[in-house]
Amino acid sequence: MSSLIIFGAIGFSRMGISQLPDVDFPIVNVSVTLEGAAPEVMESSVVDVLEGQLTSVEGVKSITSTSRTGNANITLEFDISRNLDLALQDVQAKVAAAQRKLPKDVDPPSVSKTNPEDQPILWLGITSTNMSMRDFMIYVRDNVKDQFSTIPGVGEVFMGGYVEPAMRVWIEPKKLDRYNLSVTDILSTIAAEHSEPPSGYVDTGPRELNVRTMGEAVTTDQFKNLRVNTRGGTPNYLPIKLNDVVRIEPGLNDIRRISRVEGKTAIGLGIRKQRGANAVAAANGALKKMEAVRKFLPEGMAIKPVFDSTVFIREAVSELNFTLVISAILTSLVIMVFLGSLANTLNVLLAIPTSIVGTFIILHFAGFTLNTFTLLALSLAIGIVVDDAIMVLENITRHKEMGKPTKQAALDGSNEILFAAMAATISICAIFLPVAFMTGIIGKFFFQFGVTMTAAVLLSLVEAITLTPMRAATFASKPHTATRMGRAMDAMMNGMLSAYRRGLAYSLSHRWKVVIGSILFFVASLFITTKLNKEFLPAEDQSRFMVRFLAPVGSSLGYTDDKVKAAEVILKKNPDIETFFAAVGGMGGGQINTGMAFVTLKEKKHRKRNQFEIMDGLRKDLSAIPGIKSFVQDLSTQGFSTGKGYPIEFAIQGGDWGKLSGAAVKIQEKMAKTGMMIDIDTDYQVGMPEVRITPDRTKAANRGVAVQQIGQTINAAIGGVLAGYYTENGRRNEIQVKLDENDHRSYLDKINTLFLRNNRGELVALKDVVDVKESASLQQITRRDRQRAVTIYANVKTGASQADALAAVERIANETLPEGYRFVTSGSSQTFKESFVSLIVALGLGIAVAYMVLGSQFNSFIDPITVLLALPFSLSGAFITLWIAGKSLNLYSMIGLLLLMGIVKKNSILLVEFTNHVRDAGEKDVNKALMEACPNRLRPIVMTSLATVVGAIPAAIAFGPGAESRAPMALAVIGGVTLSTVLTLFVVPCFYSLFASKRREVEHRPNEISDTALTPPVGQH
Q1: How far apart are CA 224 and CA 193, in angstroms?
Q2: For residues 584 and 597, what is the distance between their CA atoms, to the nearest angstrom?
Q3: Vertex 921, ends 919 and 924: CA angle to 5°?
Q4: Model confidence pLDDT, tens digit, residues 480-514
Q5: Which residue has the higher pLDDT, 441 or 937?
Q6: How many Å from the N-terminal Cα to the C-terminal Cα in the chain?
Q7: How much of the chain, in percent, has pLDDT values that exceed 90?
Q8: From CA 391, how far away is CA 412, in angstroms rounded?
Q9: Side-chain half-sphere CA neighbours of 959 within 13 A
Q10: Are 29 and 377 in contact (CB under 8 A)?
Q11: HEC profile for 18-44?
């Protein structure tokens, strides 16, 4: 016992802490960049080529792609059984094979695994009041970021709002005209005059010297003094300083994203943890490092945490640990009241540390973390692990009261109850066996719950059949009637026993009425499920949420920024908000009409409203801002899927964008009319303004201009081009060439002033060889399984059922979509549907496995059915309790139902096993055997059931962090055990009595045949 506790404590101290189990999602992401390419070009020239190769990768379940201007992402989802590391290698091989078919200018594709846990666990906001933006960016990059990268458990530090420093070469068309130069001449000059090729070494005999050609410009002045030595490839006999034709200055890359902390321009440091690392320890290390960094920051610079997801994890785990302690104390009180002896109470209570703490040994070596699932399993196991010890000790006490010596009573009592204890424990473990075969991601999460519960229960069995009898035989205890409490409880149990005998006698005389009535009661209780809200996960008040902003398609970064600033004013005025971190343009940039804000609320005790009331209020306030849409998203339901985390998420697929977009608009309108959904949004955004510059091939040919030359000139001048790199303070920064940012003319005027050089070295006006017009296009193109798709997202309105909303969405889609177009759930919606199907299958398989296990233990076909009769009543009790408490049927309450399948059989096993024992001892009358056996088992049944119920009460009434998830599970257990115990005491004996003769007939027929076969005929001896 001591060994289990000591090594369990060591295992506990070495386990990581996280909110959810560390699960490898079978997702691989391919990211491709082709600077400046339109979404249509990315789709046809890049995405389609890669998808053609990737569809043949083994185990691919679905392929989703998104094409935007300049970049594309392809997401591959694999079967859960596929080895993800091998899948990653296969994807890399296919991408490499496809690269020769991709455009020449495309950057090498990036292939990586994707996991919801890869999101930053902590955001630190850094602000500065007296430092230029360029100096600010450089200081954070060079002096702050890397200090957080070396913290144990930290995998990556992501910088939100960071813009790379660059040497900016601003083209001034008038100066180019003055010197008869083109944009390509500038690019050629930088390539030729700013170069430092490796030069090798010189061997002088006694010495060896490295040779270095110092051809790179390293300062702004040196850049300005570079000479333009050629025009269109011909010598320029009067070299021109680069500074005479362009404006050169150290600056930043194009600003496509902006971050702010409470309205102040900032850089956000997103701390991502390593896979399997302790999230809380990593965050604590980062916060400790932040305090050290803060002391050395320049004047005017500040750093603070602005979004910390580990606060909730830390508090929730602490709350669960507290729940464990309270459950143990309450269970102790129940045992103390029933046993009336301190020695007996301590004997039983020692099962808790032995089983619970000992379980950490298995969890540690299994690579599990302390998370919601493992800790919930342990908190619910408190009331279960004492059951075996209670049964054994109660039976030993009964044998002592018969007058047997202590050691003999311990031996006889434990032997007599051994079968029932083993049958009950193995039946609990058997119910979790199908969990290992659950499909989908949810099976991975359930696996840790099942292993934890199984380990704790098996350890409790070992403890009960070995250590409990040993302690009972070694340490003398007073009879429970020796104390006032014991006598009071004895009197109460005697009264209960008398009432039970009368009720049991009446039930046995009306057996069919009792059985049929109980069946009707169960059927009637199933109608309660129609009144229960059904959802994947209950929303939790984690004191944090996110707001997404969406400006009209084609909005500039400045426009979006102004609207987000208006939203920040509203956030700042809200008295319940502690802090917030806003980002415009997306974390990676490129989506300049979008923004987001990570909001952290004050602690629950410091605010009057809960998180969801605050979110509803913000929806109303933010909707008053004209010209932008706001979507408030709860983050507590993320982590179980790879989508955006919305409870409603689906795609419609088809070939024609016109039909898809029309159907999407109609579907969204109908979704809003149901009244069940809010924050309805879609990834289909049309109307992106696009300037189309079409070369006039005839005019270009007549003037000796190549189409490639036109594209290069426009790319360099309008889009900007990377002309090379230079070294600054030991780091390589980019050299960016682009039209002067201070030139505020229209894009058409800018294009009309550009010249390019033809094949004869002459300058030709760009406007003479191209046609320019503006049109609308798509901002992004989404495909699913190589078909164009539109994805629609929505939140479920408070009080509505996710299942009802999904059913409504599916009905609306089927009514609206044209023939040949499909509706496909994705993200959380798909996980919700898969998980409930998997859970129902697991329940069915669990019952089948339990029947087989019980059949082998009882050596009977009928007894397992009698034992399993308790299961329907447990479901009835769970449904009724959830309905009364106003809770939903969700993932956690379904875990409670699964757990009930194992728990409630214990009472039936006690009744059936002891009745069989009485009958085997010689009692032929079934009803008399039941009247003798069942009352004898009443006390342990009431004790074990009450211990289980009381052990679950702290989780059921908890108000701390994570209470929304724990309560449905605990309530399901409390209601199921309570009702099942009451009905089992009467229905199981009646059913046993009805089929007792059938049981004997079935079980003894093989013996009778065998005896007959072995008996020789008369006269043959």
Answers
A1: 11
A2: 9
A3: 40
A4: 555 676 677 778 878 888 898 999 899 888 889 98
A5: 937
A6: 60
A7: 10
A8: 13
A9: 3
A10: no
A11: CCCCCCCCCEEEEEEECCCCCHHHHHH
What is the sign, positive or negative, of the torsion defined by CA atoms of 850, 852, 857, 863?
Answer: positive
Q: Could you give the CA distance from residue 216 to residue 226 in angstroms, rounded to a whole number?
A: 10
Helices within 869-995 (DSSP H only)? 870-885, 891-903, 905-920, 926-956, 963-994
pLDDT score of 861: 81
Alpha-carbon distance of 35 to 723, in angstroms, equals: 13
Q: Which of 310, 367, 312, 316 is nearest to 24 (CA)?
A: 367
Q: Which two tokens stand for residue 356?
A: 């619970």
**Token pair 């490499």: residue:** 96
Please say whether the beta carbons of 317 and 24 come within 8 A. no
Rounded Cα–Cα distance for residues 536 and 806 (Å): 11
Mean pLDDT of 291-315: 88
Looking from the CA of 350 toward its CB, the CA atoms found within 13 Å total: 19
Are 538 and 606 contacting, i.e. CB atoms less than 8 angstroms apart?
no
Neighbours of 1007 (CB within 10 A): 9
pLDDT at position 290 over 90: yes
Query: Quick one: pLDDT at residue 905?
Result: 80
DSSP string, 130-179: SS-HHHHHHHIIIIIIHHHHTSTTEEEEEEET---EEEEEEE-HHHHHHT
Residue 62 phi/psi, 5° resolution? -155, 155
Tokens read off for 479 = 């009879």
Q: How many C-alpha atoms does 653 have within 13 Å on its Cβ side?
A: 14
Per-residue pLDDT tens for 920-947? 887 778 888 888 888 888 888 888 788 8
Q: Is the pLDDT of residue 395 over 60?
A: yes
Burial category of 802 from C-beta neighbours within 10 Å (exposed 0-12, middle 13-18, buried 19 and up): buried
Burial 837-860 (b: 16+ CB within 10 A, else e): ebbeebbebbbebbbebbbebbeb
Whole-angstrom distance, CA of residue 61 vs CA of residue 49: 19
Q: Can you give the three-state secondary structure of 68-95, one letter per residue?
A: ECCEEEEEEEECCCCCHHHHHHHHHHHH
Angle subtended by helix axes 963-994 and 310-339, to nearest 10: 40
pLDDT value at residue 888: 87
Here the tokens at position 962 are 């994570």
Contact (Cβ atoms closer than 8 angstroms) between residue 970 and residue 380 = yes
pLDDT digits (tens, 9 = 90+) for 66-86: 888 788 889 888 887 788 888
Please give the Cα distance from 832 to 814 (Å, whole number).
Answer: 20
Q: Which residues, in sequence order, are CB contacts of 150 under 8 Å at separation 6+? A: none
**C-beta atoms surrounding 742 within 10 Å:** 8
* Stretch (H or E) spanning 721: strand 721-728
Rounded-to-5 percentages of helix, strand, coil across the chain: 55, 20, 25
| Helix, strand or coil, per DSSP, at residue 275 | coil
Q: Report how far residue 918's alpha carbon sits from residue 587's, in angstroms, rounded to the nearest whole number.
A: 72
Q: What secondary structure letter does DSSP report for 675?
A: S
826, 651 Cβ separation under 8 angstroms: yes
Q: Tell me the mean pLDDT in the region 842-852.
A: 79
pTM as predicted: 0.80
Strand segments, DSSP code E, in 751-812 are 755-757, 763-765, 770-778, 780-784, 787-796
User: How does pLDDT run across 891-918, given as a tens digit for each residue?
Assistant: 888 888 887 877 788 788 888 888 888 8
Assess contact for 415 and 433: CB atoms under 8 A.
no
- What mean pLDDT is predicted for residues 576-599? 83
Distance CA 32, CA 415 (A): 69
Instruction: Quote the DSSP letter at residue 585.
Output: S
Report how far residue 487's alpha carbon sits from residue 480's, in angstroms, rounded to the nearest whole number. Answer: 7
Which is higher by pLDDT, 848 or 134?
134
Nearest CA among 718, 888, 737, 682 for reference residue 799: 888
Strands 594-601 and 544-550: antiparallel
Residues 6+ apart with CB under 8 A from 627: 551, 552, 559, 563
Whether 132 shows a pLDDT value over 80: the answer reads yes
